[in-house]
Design a protein that fits this description.
By secondary structure, the protein is mainly beta. It is built from 5 helices and 66 strands. The longest helix is centred in the N-terminal third of the chain and has 6 residues. The relative contact order is 0.08. Keywords: Capsid protein, Cell cycle, Cell division, Metal-binding, Oxidoreductase, Signal, Virion.
Length: 1021
């Protein structure tokens, strides 16, 4: 018997995410090409990447006994997504054959004891590895079933004829499922020397990975509940408590109020897995009981200890990260399939377009219990059937022309295939085999004879006689001159057919490639677009294909426990929402909304003052400055100021702290950032403060010479690139007239006002203004827009469907207000949001009257500055009028919250909804692989993206901090693309703080189809 020494080391892979396993190769990952819920744009949000992260543990093979030379063979040679071996799960697959004895030396590099247990091979009790039935070394504590940290054990296994097949191995010390869910498993494959040659060997592991979870942070956790178990918890304080199951994608909520019932019962059910009821309200001191009435293990775990469990194939989750196995049609694959999910959950292995012999039947699906495995041979299916199906009844293509993008392969005659010969195109009419063979470790005999299946072969391309001669057959040389060659690609799913498991990411792809020769007439008669070979990326399809590309939509979310009047996007990616008492004695508290889970976090943000109708703006370090507010109630003053500091270690938390007070009380004020990071406060009452004050991070000072009594409150004010603060007349209360103006700062605490041009329309009360800057122009081009508004002037002098723009090139001289195309509907109390594409989204408002108007406008519309056109969009589910906020998120969606609904029982909206612009259904999104976390004014910097060649624009957008349709900080800044490579763009930071006041910005790249990436936060200073 031959002998072989194998060196295995148990090692940790720190910070491993199954959707982003390798930061060095992340351009290949962070995708969900099936566009499951929350990934409609095919991109895994950054926060989800983090929530799936764990410290993985693997068996890793080395080539030497000193464990210095890592065996770096790929697990699957044809897997386009496989990460490098240092970031791979499983870490090792061992191949052997009958007649070989394996000496497997296992070094434990972890801090806990482990072992190695192998299925199927011959071994003695010294090599079983199952605690506590192993053996102990003569000297020392080391055992075969408990290898101590930094110690070794040599396991001895014999491979014989009756072990032919594939066999899993895993730790069998203690807490087996727990360590296997970290990746501590692998496989031994005993090849059958009598079997025919195959083109690809593909080991596939179905398993789950559990993210790092700090259960100590959870307010309650049931641990594992089995069928029939119960769990109870007493809630002794008010609040909203989110909980979930650590094993399955289930979640629920318990709301605790002062006067709710004192008991509640929730059932845990399966098929589908769910909590029923999933949203209950109880009183303080209530006991909630969960009854396990299902048939799978579950937990009831409070969200604070949350991590996401991943349904994985080969250590990765969701198509685009999981294996993409690239192979030519007709090649033979030998699959080694393992189920390393050690729980009570079964899986099955299903192949699209392929089948294998199982006993006397042909099958395409087989179930596997925990630690089961089997072998199956299949043939890579054709991308298109042969003979070519030219007799379908599809509608003929207009003018008989093929669609764009289906160009023939040029120079394909010169290409060589993987065997070194000329690439041979498939002949029209050739029939690919549908068959294959299989065996398992329970059936060790050799595979069925080749002669038993006429479609068999010995590793090469299947060749068959013609059933029907196509026009490109070699027998017709004259016709061949008219034929062209096409490289085709078809993605066939590999997945567990338990739908929940597949939708949770347990799916992969077999990417078949096929070269065909087609005549022009045949191409015309094919009733679909030829699936040409493309780069490694998700299919470019709309999320709503039957509605057409560019379809937008609103999604109704769970309601907020608080009324929202103020909203701000934090640089943690989460959204701070608050209102204050709102003249209704609401609790003084705010909430954090998580865009990843689309949930309000359970923690309460205490407001130290009544912030209702305050002003707010971000400071350079990302903290939020809140100035003024309401004086309703004893003890409240509205000259006080506070700063909200997000908790960067826990983005669901943060706290307010007091800073210096202003000299003037300010209710409905506007705060404006300056180029040096200071903040100006204007207006507000009561009485209305004419004097402006400036905050330097420590104290407030008056700005002499800058007094101005604005007719309205919340005046529309914006810092221009030339340094002036421009007044647009948008705002609150009567703003009759058309005179605009700008403030010039003549010193750190001095300035003066200059009246400027007249707007086209009288009265912009309750309209909204915003700023866009294009730094690709020289000098930079600045546009100030104002949309809608107008409720108090004479009808003949106002029109709330109108919009205007004033454009500056460099300084403020020589410009005037110009009317642009009217909106489709008149709007007052309108929300305007600058999009990553440079277009402007208009949301909500009402068509007539002031804040309590009963005529809401529900459809959104988008303005295109390049064409001066408006495009109507999807309708809101609820009115968003007075007191509503709309916030652009890093993923390009928009959160809408708050607003009044006159005439209803509760006129203050607690509903939340999420808008997906049409650009999210235009195809695959570009991805920013890396971007600097901070840049300095005027410097160039690089943005890495695998789609660099197709990027049309780069933009910075300031995070929204909005209330009452007023946000002096919102600005869109288009950046230049100075140069590019295949994977990198070089751009330039804004020249100074007048263009971009210091602070955090969202960085987007937008492709030539108008689809933006998910943003990265970049600090500008």
């Amino acid at each position: 018997m031959q002998t072989r020494h194998i060196y295995i080391k148990i090692e940790e892979i720190p910070n491993y995410s199954p959707v982003a396993p390798d930061d060095a190769e992340h351009h290949k990952h962070r995708l969900d090409c099936m566009r499951n819920m929350g990934h409609e744009d095919a991109i895994i949000p950054e926060a989800e990447v983090d929530r799936r992260t764990l410290n993985a543990l693997v068996y890793r093979e080395y080539l030497d006994g000193a464990y210095t030379i890592l065996k770096d063979d790929p697990l699957i040679a044809a897997d386009a997504n496989e990460p490098r071996v240092e970031r791979r799960i499983p870490g090792a697959v061992i191949y052997t054959q009958p007649g070989e004895r394996l000496y497997v030396h296992v070094l434990n590099g972890d801090i806990e004891p482990h072992s190695l247990h192998v299925h199927g091979l011959h071994y003695g009790i010294d090599s079983d590895g199952s605690w506590p039935f192993g053996v102990q070394e003569y000297e020392g504590p080391n055992r075969s079933d408990a290898i101590c940290p930094s110690e070794q054990w040599c396991y001895i296994f014999d491979a014989r004829e009756d072990t032919i097949g594939c066999w899993p191995f895993h730790d069998h010390h203690m807490h087996i499922e727990e360590v296997v869910k970290r990746g501590l498993f692998g496989g031994i494959i005993v090849r059958d020397p009598h079997c025919e040659k195959v083109d690809l060997e593909v080991p596939i592991f179905f398993h789950r990975l559990t993210a790092n979870v700090d259960i100590a942070e959870a307010a309650f956790d049931s641990d594992t509940l089995n069928p029939g178990d119960t769990f109870a918890h007493v809630f002794n304080e008010e609040g909203t408590f989110e909980y979930y199951c650590r094993f399955h994608p289930m979640q629920g909520r318990v709301r605790v109020t002062a006067a709710g019932p004192l008991t509640a019962t929730i059932n845990i059910l399966d098929t589908p897995a769910r909590f029923e009821l999933d949203d209950v309200t109880v009183g303080v001191g209530a006991e909630v009981t969960w009854n396990h009435a299902g048939n799978q293990p579950h937990t009831v775990t409070e969200r604070a200890g949350a991590g996401l469990e991943s349904y994985a194939i080969n250590g990765r989750t969701f198509v685009g990260n999981t294996p993409t196995i690239v192979a030519e049609s007709g090649k033979r694959i030998r699959w080694y399939v393992f189920n390393l999910d050690m729980s009570m959950v079964w899986h099955n292995f299903h192949l699209h377009g392929q089948r294998w012999r199982w006993g006397t039947e042909w099958v395409d699906t087989r179930s596997l219990g925990p630690a089961e495995s089997f072998v199956a041979d299949t043939i890579v299916p054709p991308v298109i059937l042969e003979p070519l199906p030219l007799d379908c009844c599809c509608k003929p293509r207009e003018n008989g022309q093929n669609r764009p993008g289906h160009e023939p392969v040029h120079g394909a005659e010169e290409e060589e295939n993987q065997h070194g010969g000329r690439a041979q195109p498939a002949r029209i009419g050739a029939a690919h085999a549908a068959g294959a063979r299989a065996h398992t470790h329970s059936h060790p005999s050799r595979l069925e004879s080749e002669a038993s299946d006429p479609s068999s072969h010995s590793g090469g391309q299947h060749e068959h006689s013609h059933e029907h001669s196509g026009e490109c057959d070699s027998a017709y040389p004259d016709r061949r001159r008219e034929c062209k060659r096409y490289q085709l690609q078809g993605d066939f799913l590999i997945h567990c057919h338990v739908e929940m498991h597949m939708m949770e990411g347990m799916a992969a792809i077999l990417r078949a490639t096929q070269e065909v020769e087609l005549s022009e007439e045949e191409v015309k008669r094919i009733c679909y677009q030829l699936p040409n070979v493309r780069m490694h990326e998700c299919p470019e399809v709309g999320h709503h294909p039957c509605g057409g590309d560019g379809e937008d939509s609103w999604e109704l979310l769970d309601s907020s426990p608080i009324f929202t009047v103020h909203g701000a996007l934090l640089h943690t990616g989460h959204v701070l929402l608050f209102s204050g008492a709102a003249e209704r004695n609401y609790p003084l508290e705010g909430r954090i909304w998580d865009p990843t889970t689309r949930q309000i976090m359970p923690g309460v943000i205490t407001l130290p003052e009544d912030f209702f109708c305050s002003g707010h703006i971000f400071l350079p370090d990302g903290r939020l400055l809140v100035v003024g507010g309401d004086t309703n109630g004893a003890g409240h003053t509205n000259n006080r100021c506070f700063i909200f500091t997000p908790d960067t270690t826990n983005p669901d938390a943060g706290a307010f702290s007091a800073t210096a007070s202003m000299a003037h009380a300010r209710w409905y004020p506007t705060a404006v950032s300056l180029s040096d990071g200071r903040v100006l406060a204007f207006s507000g009452g009561h009485p209305i403060a004419a004097e402006a004050e400036v905050y330097d991070g420590t104290s407030w000072a008056p700005v002499t010479g800058a007094d101005r009594t604005f007719e309205e409150l919340y005046p529309g004010l914006h810092l221009l690139p030339s340094g002036e603060i421009f007044y647009t007349r948008a705002g609150w209360a009567g703003a009759t007239g058309t005179q605009t103006a700008y403030l010039t700062l003549t010193g750190p605490t001095s300035g003066n006002w200059t009246d400027y041009g007249q707007e086209q329309f009288y009265d912009r009360q309750e309209g909204m203004s915003l700023l866009t800057i294009d730094t690709t122009a020289s000098p930079e081009r600045t546009r100030l827009y104002i949309f809608g508004g107008g409720v108090s002037g004479p009808a003949t002098a106002r029109n709330n469907a109108t919009a205007e723009v004033i454009e500056f090139s460099g300084g403020v001289g020589g410009s005037s207000w110009q009317r642009i195309a009217d909106m489709n509907v008149g709007r007052t109390n309108v929300n305007a949001v600058a999009l990553p594409t440079g277009r402007i989204l208009i949301i909500g408002g009402h068509s007539n009257g002031q804040k309590w108007s009963p005529t809401p406008v529900l459809p959104v519309e988008t303005y295109n500055p390049d064409t001066d056109e408006w495009t109507p969009g999807a309708s809101l589910n609820f009115p968003r009028q007075y007191h509503s906020v709309c916030i652009l998120l890093p993923d390009g969606r928009i959160l809408a919250a708050g607003g009044v609904a006159p005439g209803t029982a509760d006129p203050d909206q607690h509903t939340l909804e999420l808008y997906s612009p049409g650009y999210l259904s235009l195809g695959a999104r570009p991805v920013i692989s890396t971007a600097p976390p901070s840049v300095t004014y005027g410097t160039t910097f690089s943005v890495e993206t695998p789609q660099a060649a197709n990027i049309g624009s780069v933009a910075l957008i300031a995070p929204i901090s909005v209330t009452h349709h007023t946000d002096a900080g919102q600005r869109y800044i288009k950046l230049p693309i100075n140069s590019r490579t295949a994977t990198t763009l070089e751009t330039a930071a804004p020249a100074n703080g007048n263009i971009a006041p210091p602070g955090f910005y969202m960085l987007f790249v937008v492709n030539n189809q108008g689809v933006p990436s998910e943003a990265r936060f970049v600090a500008i200073s």
